[in-house]
Amino acid sequence: MKKSDFKVVLIGDSGVGKSTFISALINENINKLTHVEKHQPIQLPPEMFNHPECNTTLIDTKCQANQIPEQVKIADIILLMYSIDDNCSCERLQKFWLKGLKEKELKQPIIIVGNKLDLMGVEDNRDYCRIFKVIKQLVKDFSQVEMGIECSSNQFQSVQDVINCAQRSYLYPLAPLYSLVNKALTEGFKKALTHIFRICDRDGDGVWSDQELQRFQKQVFKRNLDQSDIAGIKDMIEEELKDDSNKKKFITLQGFMALQKRGIELMKIQISWTILRFFHYKDDLTLEEYLFQDEIIFDQEAGQTVELSEMALQELKSIFELQGQIITPTQFDYIFYPVTYQTSFPLLQQYHPQSQQITLTQWLSLWNAFSFFNYKDTYKLMNYIGIDIKMSDAFKEQNKKDSWSSVKKIIERKVFHFVIITKNKKKILEEQFNNLSPRITTINSKTYVISIYDEQQAEQLIERSLNIIDFLMIEKSCSFQTAQLIPMTFYDDNISVWTQISNLVDILHSQSYGYSNLQIQQLKQKNSFSIISLTGGITLLVSLTTAGYYFFRYKPFKKMK
């Protein structure tokens, strides 16, 4: 649930009855006339309204005839009041007030309040729906206008309803979910519903069975559905979609969206927000950031890396296979449809060889490469596209590379990073990479990421990331050197870069893993040091434990006074 403290700012022309409205609101509650000091914030009693969890502050305003009050900047909801019996007051809603608010680029919901209902005749009140005619055009021209309501401050008529509407608009805002102009769900809401639908599609077949619908209802609303309830839901979807695509044993994503649209149009927007907040959506229809703040503890300085687990790869495989044996760029974009932020996921063009249709191997390779450099961003993106998995289950830590025994486990990894360092040939190399770096490829079911640095970049940047580089290919004219223990070779102008990459793969998986004899000796020395340190540590621990045992055994305890 949202924060409970919120401010309602009341604006409108002088003489429309703003102060009288506030006095009526207070007097109606305590059932006697009370003087209310003008233009001072009023704390409204929570028990007076439909949403007692809201601590509502009502702010009256006063300003020059052609000024927008400064208080609108702190408003959560804006009540724009006009006088029903004054055509000039009604015309100024659009020509001055809403125009001025739009120019200030304010985003708060606006409720149009028609005051002085008691001055209209009974026939007018019954037969002429003024408020609808007033806001119909305003809704089209100003997206922040959510609704209109009429009241009479003098007769205490519908005064509390105005605040109830304000609280409802604050707790369950309409604009993020539904366009009154187009009478359609917003794109952001459809993205969120797609995410939720995928999360609840437990078997991953792209539709909800009756059991999945029941589980969703039980999970979110804490109540069970019987068969008559399910049949009623499907009837409602059929009416909205005007077809029988959901009359079978399942509900489609389109059916789920149609159900939400019908609910909003029946003034049951609270249902949609209950669903969204259960699945951790904020008012701007992005997921709560705390969902992605876990961390995996690994030793990056020692060359340890993080890779996707088999469980995560299987989830990604299921999403792919739902589209078929191969996926087109259009299907690729649909998979990422629920994502509401700018992601650095690799472009399709970064895969070598480039093709218009993506295979399962290419799909998993892109994810492997993405997770290699930033597992947190990978986890967030997986969540948005509909994979419900714990971070600890989504990734696994791979071996370190700070000793020879650790290096010998390198064959177990799925992702490797090659870096080419050049002095004079960066432009030529980038052209071979179609001006896209890094490039990603798959060789023998493993993923290889190839980056290009010129010598100056290497000197400035590469030392900080050498611990996640598995092979250096250096142009012979370069003077770049590093003290870190990384396999390296020279770039050959006479051989295709991709042929050289394939050769590096063979070297990387050879008995020496591409390391020179000197590097191997240095790694073995580190390995020996680690064993000696471990042995020494165990000896020290045993000694301390033994000493502690004798200390407590033979030292008498003193009585506490």
UniProtKB/TrEMBL annotation:
Residues 224-311 form the EF hand associated type-2 domain. It comes from the Eukaryota. GO terms for cellular component: mitochondrial outer membrane. GO terms for molecular function: GTP binding; GTPase activity; metal ion binding. Pfam families: EF_assoc_2, Ras. PROSITE patterns: SIGMA54_INTERACT_1 (PS00675). It is a single-pass type IV membrane protein. Its main location: mitochondrion. Keywords: Calcium, GTP-binding, Hydrolase, Membrane, Metal-binding, Mitochondrion, Mitochondrion outer membrane, Nucleotide-binding, Repeat, Transmembrane, Transmembrane helix. The chain crosses the membrane at residues 529-552. The keyword Cytoplasm does not apply. InterPro entries: EF_hand_assoc_2 (IPR013567), Miro-EF-hand_domain (IPR052266), Sigma_54_int_dom_ATP-bd_1 (IPR025662), Small_GTPase (IPR001806). It is found in: Mitochondrion outer membrane. PANTHER family: EF-HAND CALCIUM-BINDING DOMAIN-CONTAINING PROTEIN 7. Belongs to the mitochondrial Rho GTPase family. This is EF hand associated type-2 domain-containing protein.
